Task: inverse folding
């Protein structure tokens, strides 16, 4: 399954971005989905999770700033990121949780800098 993440870019500290991810198969709706990120020189980490029923969980570092959502009719999962910090700079990916539903793809780069 192909997973395509997009919406990244350069944003100033305190700014906002909305990332989107589309899945190439409708079986997406049967999977717990998540956003991950990998900062330069660091391991990939889990950022946010959304269950098939819409329950959400967040890493402590983004809680209260990021919101994950999904649209099963469109096979999409979004990540609204507010109050961005320089430490949020990373390549962001979507996949299932645990990962394996689809390929990681290239992700989308988010750079938070003034």
Result:
């Amino acid at each position: 399954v192909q997973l395509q993440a997009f919406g990244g870019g350069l944003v100033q500290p305190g700014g906002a971005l909305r990332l989107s991810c589309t899945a190439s198969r409708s079986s997406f709706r049967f999977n717990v989905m998540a956003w991950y990120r990998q900062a330069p020189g660091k391991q990939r980490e889990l950022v946010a999770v959304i269950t098939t029923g819409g329950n959400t969980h967040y890493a402590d570092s983004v809680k209260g700033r990021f919101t994950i959502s999904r649209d099963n009719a469109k096979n999409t999962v979004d990540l609204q990121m507010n109050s961005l910090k320089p430490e949020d700079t990373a390549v962001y990916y979507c996949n299932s949780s645990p990962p394996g539903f689809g390929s990681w793809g290239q992700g989308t780069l988010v750079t938070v800098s003034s």
